[in-house]
Design brief:
single chain, 270 residues, 14 helices
């Protein structure tokens, strides 16, 4: 059976592990945010915005970032991408890595009313990484892995090590995908199996990009044994959650299942 989905593991990683989360939370466990969190979760966005303003005026960079997000989506205030950009820029200038990463994504995708700019994307990605943004560190490592050169691979692994020690799922996922790619390329079954087990563990813990990878492998059957029903189950769950590409993957798997059922049964070998 021909392969159903994306062939390149590193390509899968770049399209699944780092997709922007449209439901970015503005809450924080810090006691300073207790009132704002309570108001936000109660969907009293106007009062939550005012509380965030109070914290931002006291110099809290998380609060400044949150004002940017709420302004971007129009929660508790008028939706205004230009003003949201200014909030993010302020938080970034004050050292808040997530704001710098948000600006990097904006320049990469042409969001927030700005023009795509590869140079600015790299500039803010590096800035976010240096400010300790875990998302930026993982994305930087992924860019290095995609160069396909051993020296860049070593640099990427070094970037990921602190996050791997913290069991940060996106870093663990990317490292497992890289190991699997190298294992397949070098025909190293031990390395392949270790990487597959890592991805399965992440999938069991509900990490969606690993579920997507596992679903692809089960559908294709080129790395692990094909199991279309299990792949269908995974993609059904992801499609219900509106995860990118899950509905398309589910449709392809359902087509393959239907074709398999319609095919004439083969006589048993003697």
């Amino acid at each position: 059976m021909k392969k159903l989905l994306i062939a390149s593991l590193m390509t899968i990683a770049s399209h699944t592990a780092f997709a922007a989360d449209a439901k970015t939370s503005v809450t924080k466990s810090d006691p300073l945010f207790a009132k704002a969190t309570q108001l936000y979760e109660a969907k009293d966005y106007s009062a939550a915005f005012q509380e965030m303003q109070r914290l931002a005026n006291a110099g809290n960079t998380q609060a400044i970032y949150n004002l940017g997000y709420m302004t971007q989506v129009g929660q508790g205030t008028t939706k205004d991408e230009k003003k949201a950009f200014q909030y993010y820029q302020d938080a970034s200038n004050k050292g808040f890595g997530k704001a710098s990463f948000t600006l990097a994504q904006a320049y990469n995708n042409g969001d927030l009313g700005i023009t795509k700019n590869d140079k600015k994307y790299k500039e803010f990605l590096d800035k976010a990484s240096n400010q300790g943004s875990e998302e930026a560190i993982v994305e930087s490592a992924n860019i290095l892995f995609r160069q396909g050169k051993p020296e860049y691979d070593q640099m990427a692994v070094q970037k990921l090590l602190p996050l791997l020690r913290k069991n940060y799922y996106p870093a663990m996922h990317l490292k497992a995908v890289y190991d699997l790619s190298i294992g397949v390329k070098n025909k190293n079954p031990i390395m392949q199996q270790q990487a597959i087990e890592s991805l399965k563990d992440l999938a069991k813990n509900g990490y969606v990009p690993s579920l997507m990878i596992l679903g692809n492998m089960l559908a294709n059957g080129n790395i692990i044994d094909q199991d279309l029903e299990q792949a269908k189950n995974i993609f059904s769950r992801l499609a219900e959650a509106n995860y990118p590409n899950a509905k398309e993957s589910l449709a392809k798997v359902e087509e393959a299942i239907a074709a398999k059922k319609a095919a004439p049964a083969q006589a048993p070998k003697k």
